[in-house]
Structure formats: C-alpha cells, structure tokens
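[step 3/7] fold_predict: job queued, chain A
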Amino acid sequence: MTTLTRPPADPSDHRKHEPRFKPWLLEGMPDIAGKRKATHGQPDAGHAPQAWWKVMCLTGVDYFSTLGYQPAIAALAAGMVSPIATIVLVAVTLLGALPVYRRVASESPRGEGSIAMLERLLPRWGGKLFVLALLGFAATDFMITMTLSAADASAHAIENPFAPEWLHGQEVAITLALIAGLGIVFLRGFKEAINVAVLLVGAFLALNLVVVVVGLFHVSTEAHLVTDWWAALNQQHGNPLMMIGIALLVFPKLALGLSGFETGVAVMPQIKGDPDDTEARPAGRIRGAHKLLTTAALIMSAFLIASSFITTFLIPAAEFEPGGKANGRALAFLAHQYLGDGFGTVYDISTIAILWFAGASAMAGLLNLVPRYLPRFGMAPAWTRAVRPLVLLFTAIGFLITIVFEANVEAQGGAYATGVLVLMTSASIAVTLSARRKKQRGKTIAFGAVAVVFTYTTVANVVERPDGIRIAALFILGIVVVSFASRVRRSFELRATHIKMDEKALEFTAANEEGPIRIIAHEPKRLSADRYREKLSHAEQANHLPADSDAVFIEIIVDDSSDFEQELQVVGKERHGFKILEVHSNNVPNTLAAVLLHIRDVTGLMPHIYFRWTEGNPIANLSKFLFFGEGEIAPVTREVLREAEPDITRRPWVHVG
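[step 4/7] structure written:
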C-alpha cells in the first residue's frame, strides 16, 4: 500500500509572496500535511475535555441567558395567558425537544448535530441543497442570537437608574460596541471559554433564583393577585379549555425559550468521557451529553414557569409595551423594584455579561458550522477554514443586522424564533427517519408526533411573524449564491484529501522501470473485451504508441458528484487480459489529475495519459462536469494539472486524439 496526503487547497498559494498580516489572518487553515492547528468544534490540543456540568455552562450562556428577555417577550405576546402558554412550552421542551436531542447526541457524538444526520440520510445534490437551506436557518439562529443578545444587554445598561443620561437613545451604538468587542475577543483567541461560562452562569442563575424566590414571596403575601388574575382570565376566555386552546395558539410566540439544544449537541466534543471511550463509540461522552441536556432543560423549565407567573402577577401590563421599564427586561424590573437599585444593578451587570457571552456562544457555533460543511462541499473559499476571516465576516453581518433592526429586541425575536424552530423541526424529522430506518416502530411514531408539533409551531410562527422567514431566506439565498459561485471557482482544484494504491495498482504502474507510464482513460460503462481492444488500438494509432507500450487503463466510477473533497482508493484489476486502475470518486477530471500526480511522486516516473476528444457541445459538457463530474474531461484534466503543478517539466503529459 502507498499513501499520499494532499490537502485540497489553492495549489498556487505557495508561489505568492505572503505579507505578515496574511499568515496571522489565515492561521488555522490546513498545513501541507492536511492538518489544522485546531479544529472547530473540537478541543484544542492543550485543553482537556471537561466535566459535563461545566460544558453545560458553555451552552447555558445561550440557553439560560434568554431569561434576560424571554419573560418580557412572553408577557407581551401572550398577555394574561402567558403562564399557561409557558407551561405548554415547558411540556414541549421536556416531552419533545429533550428526547429528540438526546437521540441526536447519541447519533452524532462528535457534535455534528441534526444537520449531519440529515446529510447522511439525504445524499447527492438534493441532500446538499437541503443542508444549505438548513445552514441558512442555522446562520439566522446564531447571528440573531449575537445581535439580539447584544441589543438586550444594551437595554439593561440604559434602563439602569445609575446609567448616565447621555446613554439614552444610544442603543445602536452600544450594541455595535458589544458586537465589536466580541469580534476582537475571537480575533485574539478565546482560550478560557468554559471557565468564564461557569462563572457567568453560576452568578446569573443564583441572582435569578433570588429574584424568583422574592417574587414568589410577594405573590404569596398578596393572594388577591392570583385570584384577580384567574377572575380576569375567566372573564376573558370563559373556561379552562378555552384558556388552554388560546395558550396553544400563542405558544409559538414563546419559542425563544427553546433555544440552546442545538448548541448543547455542538459542544459535545468538549465533554469528558470514560477512559475506555473510543472514537467510534464514545459512550461516556454520550452519557455526559444526556446529563447536560436533561439538567439544562429541567433548570430552564423551572425558571421559565416561575418567572412567567411572577412577572404576570407583579408587573403592570403597560410596562411590557415598547418604552416601558419592563420591556425586554422583566426580571431586572422586579430586581430593582423589590430588592433595590444596588442589587438590581448587580443583576443588570450579570445579565449584560451573560448576554454578551451568549453572543460568544453563537459566534463559536457559527465558527463550528461553516468550516464543517461549506469547504468540504467545495462551496466556500479555502480561507473559510480559518477562524479570523470568518470572525470579521460575521462581525460585519452583525453590524448590518443591528443597524437595520435599530437594536430592537422585539423586532429580532421573530427571526430568532424562526431559526430555532426550523432547526428543531429538522432535528425531529432526522430522528424520526433514523428510527424508521432502524425499524423502531414505537419511537418512529413518537418522534413523528414531535415533528408534527414542531412543524405546526414553525408554520404558526412564520405566519405570525413573517419577517423571520424573510431574513432566513436572505441568508439562504446568500449561502446558495456564494456556495455555487465558490464551487465553480474551485472546480479546477485537486480534491483528493488522501490517495491510497493497493499492491496490484502499484505493480501495474511500476512495471516499466524506465518509463514513461502510459495510461489510457476508459469509460467504465463499456467493459467488453472488444471495447478495450478498440480503445488500445485507437490510442496506438492516434498517438503512435509502440506495440509493447504496456499501457494501463484507468476507470473513474462517479458515485456522488455533489461531493467535493474525498479520499481516493486506487485498485488494480485485470479484465480480459488488460491492466486496469479503478477509482471510485465524485468526478472524473480532478481525480485523474490527482492520481497522475500521485503516480509520478510514488514511482518517480512521468505518467502520460491518453484521451479521445469528447463529443458534443463544449458548454453543455462543461455544465455536465460542474454538476455531474463528467463531460469535458481531457481539457479539464489538463487545466487541473496546470493549476496543481506550475513546473511544466514535472507536469504529467496529456495526449488527446
């Protein structure tokens, strides 16, 4: 066996003069051995995995931080029905989202999430397009998490009674400053994320516990608050069944409280497993992820229910409206009102810190998501494998969203909820399909019911707040356009990440010790002895090959042309007395070029490859190459070789007759 690793990157990069700024900017891209200094979504070499409860805090900065604005949004959206609607939300969380994501964690223990599950279940171009659409919704989720969290942090800062007067009206400027600070942190490299997350989440939950306990105490001492609320509900809606019906209708507006599950799966590589865990089956890591998801869901459910009751009972409805003191900050309002401005200010600082760090969690999610899919699909430039260019790009998009929405929390809520719900719907569909494929009838029905609930919730949210789907559509359109433009631009790159030749293939190519190695390209659909003899005869006549040329045929079998990067296995076979190199790949020309260069490097001899001209319209053939990996083979093979090997004296020869 022989091996050669060639990372699929721009082969002309080494010829260019690189200033000091470029290596710093592109730090983390694959080096010449095809390895990274650190992989997105994976722990750096110097950082050992952590206990599950610590990693829970890392995902908790996203999930738990929604307490900063969720109760206010729920009260504004559902009014007096908010507590009942919140109970529905908690039921969906514990009976729907939690089982779904526990299954996702079991099936994607390296943090790939539900998108990777669907990619495996839906192959080829249809699967790729579906993944691109989901990436658009994921980008919406993560980007709006950054901007919404920063906007709510600015609201907490401005509404604090000790805030200077000049801060009022500067929400956009403060939000932009917070996003810029986030970008600077990631440009420098944030190494202690988990420790910071543990500190922030611990402090934030402790302060919220104090506020909730004090709020419940005041509700218990003023019993008329509960009776007045219940009387108003009965007067408005008539009977409990009607109240539940209204709660089911308004529940989709509370979908922000479902965020955090996708991030919980994404951080799985950070969880410390058992000593006997293997990469194929990390049982300890999966068990830790289940504990993480369950504990986070239970903590959040308790806080959501308690906060919905105390905010509904203790805060006048007018204060939830835009311009009101509880708008976007209901628990902070109670902290100031019942515990004084000193405690309230501490609460505000804690909330601002965790909301800002929730943006860090979202940025980390984006940095994990984009390099995992788009470069591998050939649908992003090679520089998207590096962290810093992506940080600059996401920061700029965050600036644009903040300016367009004027740092308004409520205005961004619809887009955020749409992104969250679509991802949860896709996860529930993925686990349903997985259970069906494994013939688990009971689980298929259960997960199917959850998928129906999330589909309803998503559709209801889109109908109620169509701005979310519009923003997601812009992200999807941008991703698709950039992806296909990049795919076309990278069409002439080497795509083989690793090449292996078995002993027979090596024997065929090394049979002639003096060279050259003569290889005839052959279409694998025609395998009769007459076809091989005809192809050899044509090559000998058109290219004046000697009778004893000892030519070898090469056949590229295209499996999934939508794939881009791939490991190649070159297998030597004998058919009808002819020597054949067989390769399964995602395209023909790029594979031929990679194999020719590999043979040259392994044997030290110069390969010559012989083609016939492809019949048909050149433009149509080029389109076939771009989308189906075939088509205009001879000239494209030569172009890939020209890009890969600048030294013409070392470039394999291409003959066309």
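[step 5/7] annotate
The first strand starts at residue 2 and ends at 5.
Residues 272 and 321 are 45 Å apart (CA to CA).
exit 0
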